[in-house]
Amino acid sequence: MGITQAQCGTNTSNESYSTQPGPAEPQPRVPRRRVQAVAICLVRSTKRRFNCLIPPQHGYKVPIKWPKSRDVVWKANIPHTHLAKEKSDQNWMVEAGEKIKFPGGGTHFHHGADKYISNIANILNFKDNNINNEGMLRIVLDVGCGVASFGGYLLSSNVIAMSLAPNDVHQNQI
């Protein structure tokens, strides 16, 4: 994935040029790095062009993949962990060594969101207490969602949530 001169905003001739990229040119393959970084185009002269990588912050770790990242993330990848201390009584996030865990209970699901979802499926008489009811339920409207964690838990059941927060029950910004 190369960057053309038109994308970098440089032009070696006196002619005007389009702001849209030109036809794709074959670019040499660049080996992938273990740690992701952001590519930036820097032009030092009209004949030379550098593609630079911004290194990640000190201590950065490769993110945990979904769906595990819904429940746990690396503490080193979060620059501000003061929210964990402020909200420790609400069971939102808990510091556990090098990781920060999201227990899934929060203030609304004291026994966990998965158990709550299973109870809803049971009340609706869905087969095997599965909320998606063999693909018959695909979208859920979550009104008064707070931080919308309910929608994150529904994703593992192939159900999408439309989360609306008319007011913030936790007195935080939405």
Automatic annotation (TrEMBL):
Pfam families (alphabetical): Methyltransf_29 (PF03141)
Chief localisation class: membrane
Location relative to the cell: Endomembrane system; Membrane
GO cellular component, one term: endomembrane system
This enzyme's EC code(s): 2.1.1.-
Biased composition annotated in UniProt, kind: Polar residues: 1-21
One Gene Ontology term from the biological process aspect of the record: methylation
Membrane topology: Single-pass membrane protein; Single-pass type II membrane protein
Molecular-function annotations in GO: methyltransferase activity
Family: Belongs to the methyltransferase superfamily.
Name recorded for this polypeptide: Methyltransferase
Source organism: Zea mays
